[in-house]
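Quick one:
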Amino acid sequence: MILTGRVALIALLCAVPITLAPWPAAAFAVLLAGLTAAVLLDVGLTTDPATLHIDRSMDNAVRLGQTITTTLWIVNGARPLRGQIRDAWSPSARAAPRSHPLELAAGQLSRVVTELRPIRRGDQQADRVTVRSIGPLGLAGRQRSRQVPGQVRVLPPFLSRRHLPARLARLREVDGNLPALVRGQGSEFDSLREYVAGDDVRSIDWRATARRSEVVVRTWRPERDRRVVIVLDTGRTAAGRIGVDPTARDPAGWPRLDWSMDAALLLAALALRAGDHVDLLAHDQVTRAGVFGASRTRLFAQLVDAMAPLQPALVESDAEAMLATLSRRARRGNLVVLLTDLNPSALEEGLLPVLPNLTAAHQVILAAVADPRVERLAQGRGDAAAVYDAGAAERARNDRRAMAARLRRSGVQVIDAPPEDLAPALADAYLAMKAAGQL
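Output:
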């Protein structure tokens, strides 16, 4: 049973006759009994919300920052019902409105629509649906809550999609200008041509030369079905929030993991158009998600679906376990794109010990999101506190630069860019490798 505000108002008004009555105690007892009887009568006349039949219909996926609606279909029983209904979700789902007025005739079918605008990735589950039925006197009512199953998967938003047309145009340009004739192990044979001064004598085809009256050499073209393995570090360094959240306008910004996902999606879309195979591994101490050997037509959807529920784990990433997983799932000679942070202490203990084995088996790009707040702090000179902040920021920048230089000396291509620039910078690095015939 629930009481409405009307009961409190009537009780307040009853204080006047009680105060003026010659026998206040008797007046209080009479008025209380009357109000109680009215409340009980109202409850007895109230339609039980348990008699309602409620179903839900909704789409099962939405991109972060977009809006989705969920619909409750309500069938009333034999008695009219007047009240409210609330379709509750987690706070990060941003359900609106909070509640809906409900007025149903006997046997009536009604539809209640709630709008969701999620501000976090992952699977959002519906909470309880609560129906409050109010009696005809408006004094009291009944309330029931029940589970009406509902789930929506909030997918990464892929904001870097706006960079894709320019990079595809660049890819077509690279394909058109790519030297059909590059030599080297691991490339595909293209054709034979006459030897000219400056050609590597190792490229001479002696059998073809013997059949002709001139010296001929083999020409090669880059392979078009190379494999790109994207590795997402889901350890503790991926949890830091940087930049500005472009979907929820949260001043705390996105986690590093979300910016890494955005860059990974742009690279995957570009590599697919280039004819390369793309795999995904999300790893910290254990494998959190993996997409290997997916068909080209289903790959992008599988990547987005695998990334959606990922959340950073507050543990140190195990680079040795990651390398072991790569060794089992991917052959040698791939392009491995490691999306992590240039955190010196984490890399010293994690990646650097296994880096020689990784670079010996694959080409490696390490892409990291730089915190723009560090750049701003490094410029501060306003007061003593700002100077100390600037000193700490400058030291952090120097440590990252030293680690990046160390990785480059080990054969790793390093990209350290602000959040909004990471995705296009990684795509440009991939295109540069294509243009140089390295992929």
